[in-house]
Amino acid sequence: MLCSAAIKFPDGFDYRVIEVNARLSCSSALVSKATRSSLAYTAAKIALGHTLPELLNAVTANFEPSLHYIVTKIPRCGLSKFQNIHRDIRSAMKAIYAASGLAFEESIEKAIRQVDPQYLGIQGAKFDDLEYTPAILPTVVGWPLDRPFSMKIHEISGIDKWFLYKLENIIEMYKKLQAVGSLSD
Known about the structure:
- The N and C termini lie far apart (56 Å).
- This protein has a domain at 1-67.
- The protein is extended and about 60 Å long.
- By secondary structure, it is an alpha+beta fold.
- It is built from 6 helices and 4 strands, in the order ββααββαααα.
- The strands form 2 sheets. A two-stranded antiparallel ribbon has the order 1-2.
- The chain has helices at residues 26-35, 39-47, 104-115, 137-142, 152-157, 161-180; strands spanning 4-11, 14-21, 70-76, 95-101.
């Protein structure tokens, strides 16, 4: 059976299953896109008694689902059209932008650029120029990561350290690229 599951990892390896839906959803379609496999084909084969390792992707010849993609989803609330509206994160949003990559760092950078082309990624915005919206939260969080107090963000926000370390990887690469300069130099 194909299902969509929402899982919360409050702290460490202790987790809670928030919901499980035995249906196809937008998230299922995203998984299909990320893994380069057909949901209908996979569901039909499983219904006929096949196991996942028996199902080969016609393009890659790997068993399905492909497990080496990371997908990052970022909400876009489209609040710029409305005046006098609260900009906090809420359960309702206008759209979800998603990007896949072979590493979290790649997929989050792609997803941020999809939300708004003015954002070049984690490092691409000046902190003073940002107007807070949920969609640019990773950019705001990424800004202080090149300062000594970066992991203090975990204590203040509760954002898991794994994500902060991944954002810090992006900042470190950005610094290395800045040090190199341009290819024409």
